[in-house]
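Researcher: Can you fold this with manganese (II) ion in place?
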Amino acid sequence: MDTALAAERRPAEAIPTADDLIARVRSYHPGADGDLIRRAYEFAREKHSRQTRHSGEPYYGHVVAVAMMLADLHLDVSTVCAGLLHDTVEDTEATLEELAELFGEDIARLVDGETKLSQMELSSKRTKQAENFQKLVVAITEDVRVLLVKLCDRLHNMRTLHHIPRQDKRERIARETLEIYAPLARRIGVNRLCTELEDLSFRNLNPNAFESITRRLAAIRETRSVAVATVSAALSAKLEEAGIDARVFGREKRPYSIWRKLERKGVSFDEIADIYAFRVIVTSPDDCYRTLGVIHQTWRCVPERFHDYISTPKPNNYRSLHTTIIGPSNIRLELQIRTEEMEAVAETGVAAHWRYKSGRYGYDAKAAQAAGGDPLERLRPFVEILEQGGDPDEFLEHAKLEMFADQVYCFTPKGELIALPGGATPLDFAFAVHTELGAATVGAKINGRERPLRTRLKNGDVVEIIKGGARQPPAGWEELVVTGRAKAAIRKLIRASEHEEFVRLGRVIAEHAFLREGKPFRETALKNAYERLDVKTPEALYEALGRGRVSSSELLDAVFPGQRESRAETTADRELIQDEKGELYVHGSGLTPGVSLHFADCCSPIPGDRIVGIMRRGRGVEVHVIDCEKLAVWEEEEGDAANDRWIDLKWTPEAQSNAVSIGRIVATVRNEPGALAEIAGAVGEARGNITHIKTNLRSRDFFDMVFDVEVFDVRHLSNIVAALKTCDRVVTAERARSE
Ligand code: MN
């Protein structure tokens, strides 16, 4: 029997009364309007009187539970009342006008926000979900209290999720909680809600893992309780001796955070859970450092495990000192040292800043700023992603990226802190500072030295962005960044340049077509074709040509109706277009994926190769090496139609000289120790850089490898292949031509 679930299925607790709720609010806000709370309470009970929850409980128990949670976060009366009323408009005949009249505009607006959000949740389709998330972000950035009510609502629903009979529905809700609500809670620092949301989602999505971790944690708790008490006493005694007023307590590890570490770091359960964790709460930041001093002087600290989040807070305002020591009896101890205020912010984040200010109880942005930065600022990246446009799915994808990564902290040359997800590059950094800076980036200096844009930033790096004039994002930029903000901004730049590029390409194609027909090219002549090709401007026509929606024969048929010969001569087209006008720009790697030119995967052309382009309907030009096998297959499949889909291409001189491209090599290698090292050495000596390796085990003695190397041009690639051939353990090596 699942013990954790059984514990939850205890008899329903009595629903708190209006007096209970008022007393809870008055414990932190003595002047709270009890009458208003009571009226909201009675109104909700009355309106929901005919409804019950899946658990069989009266429905109003849910809204009261939500209001109690909001009171536990010490929020204002309006928010608590909004908690009571949050489902009335959605689920009963109550109207917004009625609420505004009875309880005031502020409360009505909050309930309106909740109603809109819950209406969005009714749909389970992916795109719908994505749209909802966009609206959620808009709503919460207007008033973060909407999110706090939503999070408490979601938490209570998660606590009672097991009453929902359908498993697929439970899973959908749990997944949405884990992917959207828990990260948002973390973002605004309400960790207390976040960890419980995560654990509850985890329990529902992976009950076996949850149960096994919970059970092992319980076992550890039992066997170690004496040791924990001893350590705790030893710590307290040491601090008392030093005259430091401190509260010391053991800290429970959360099942979901253990699971994540197991998954991510591939370490054993014991390595993670077997560490004692303590929290030391003191009265001032000064005392934090004094405490640290006392502890480090008494016990040995584990290097690399010390973090000072007081001088450099985490982006969600988290402040604390972290250290790991070899404590009494040689036990490893993890310690978090912080003040009461830091503790409050760490537990409840944005909610820690509701207080009395000039006679009013409300959000104190100044106090928040003083405690390490206004948490509401942490929602800004989502708004920025939103402002970059794109469809809802794209937004959701980018926002999730934004939410899910560990952080590194870097600095501008002026010392401004920029927090980025782990794995972020200078390009992410540039876009985090400003979209325009990102777009203008051509290089970066890290700690004073020029480094490639693909460099992964490390904590404490000082990053200086080198600006240039380029407006169009170069190839592969999307792959270089990890933040949602940067991805969204790059996608937007690509969308803009894509259009231009297709238009430019289309014009070249049109000129070709006229040339082949032996007619002088005049833009005015195109007018004849507008109606037939369903376009209204030359630009639209060029774009259609560029994107391959219209072929050059179709263009000619439309421009010169009835005048064209049967196309007997077209077999010579490929020769015919070998003229100087056919020089399409192909920057070495300077092409943007998803834009009008694509390098074919099968032969991965690099500068120096003889290349040719083929028009793919709706996708623009695909660039192949001229003797690529795929090309022959394509020609066969397309038959006659292939003839006017060839595009002659040449490399620009600069692509020939300095671009770095990716070349693909296939090799058969003896299955012996050291084989990989030998290959890597040979490639390195030939000044190549391996970016990707795939090995296919073929037999006990040999395996096939495919690897991608960065090269300058064809000659460079040939040199590397030649170098490989001289390796003892390499049987064959050659450039990949087709998959
Ligand atoms: Mn609700």
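Model: Folded with manganese (II) ion in place. The first strand starts at residue 246 and ends at 250.
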